[in-house]
Amino acid sequence: MSKKGILVVFSGPSGAGKGTILAEYLRRSPKAVCSVSATTRKLRPGEVDGVHYHFVTREAFEEMIRQGEVIEYTEYNGNYYGSPAGPIRRQLEEGRDVILEIEVKGAQQVRAKFPEALSIFVMPPTFEELRRRLTGRGTENEEQIRARLQTARVEVAMAPDYDYIVVNDVVSEAADRLGYIIEAARCSRKFNQEFIQDILSQT
Amino acid sequence: MSKKGILVVFSGPSGAGKGTILAEYLRRSPKAVCSVSATTRKLRPGEVDGVHYHFVTREAFEEMIRQGEVIEYTEYNGNYYGSPAGPIRRQLEEGRDVILEIEVKGAQQVRAKFPEALSIFVMPPTFEELRRRLTGRGTENEEQIRARLQTARVEVAMAPDYDYIVVNDVVSEAADRLGYIIEAARCSRKFNQEFIQDILSQT
Description:
The structure is a homodimer.
Chain A: E1 7-11, H1 18-28, E2 32-34, E3 38-39, E4 54-55, H2 58-66, E5 70-76, E6 79-84, H3 85-93, E7 97-101, H4 104-113, E8 118-123, H5 127-136, H6 142-156, E9 164-167, H7 171-187, H8 193-202
Parallel strand pairs in A: 1-7, 1-8, 2-7, 3-4, 8-9
Antiparallel strand pairs in A: 3-6, 5-6
Helix pairs in contact in A: 1-7, 5-6
């Protein structure tokens, strides 16, 4: 089997539980890492450069775009957000599985550039459950909830573009499934071209 | 997720360890079953009808072929061997994963008829290792070994047609991988069309 890591695109609507599943999965799999995004927005109190984001200037970000050094990016509220290619490439080469927690548009960009990337969409068991989770937070007013639900609808409609659907009913089971999918990918034909060629050349 | 079982095509050259991996996997996963083949050859001492094979007459087998009731079959040494469709369909409906341990030509037939089937090819870590395993049995003469190796070459050349490659270095790890692949398949887009449609209809 190839010794390279697996690139994983991990998306899903807000409230589906992406962060909780990832935290649980990373706790179990020291081999996996989450890619740290770069952004041009200002560092907020409590945030650490290189941990929450790589904080860079607008000029630096645009230079990265020109150099093809971001594998996906978006502009939101006047700030850039994106995944820097360098660390991802290095970690994959080191045999680490790199997980990109990104939204559906970024996922499209990654899939277009890296057809070998594994794409996973996290779903609530029902849309009603998502509604409950978004409403239950109690930190947002009705209009904000409506806007979030509308975004969720648009995102869920992209699920059929992903390789895998992970239903988040029980977090530990969803993390199990994430693990199965990544380990299975290591056995995929796509990932074992070299090994197959190698063994064929010995026959 | 769908409650139906997964249909798994499991192939690999003689000596790759298919039987050992399957025995280990079935021991762990009571939900999975191996399909019992039908054959027209005579029952041998120690064999049990319905366990080792379904022993049927030539007429009965040919009638099954006409009715489309075998999902793959081959003729070998004047006898038919094939996988009866009825029990497989029933077990899948009951939510059991059905594993077909079949050779590469049968696998082609199954893939053509059931594109949703998962196909897995078991490989020795190296071809040299396969040679060692086939030679080490000590039950066959040189010519028989040569013939087996030639068959193995032809079979290994079909590996690129399979969805997954399981390298059998350590049996328990190979059985782990088989499990990851089957569990991942349960999360695949292909297997969750209904769930996706269902949740989209709720939005």
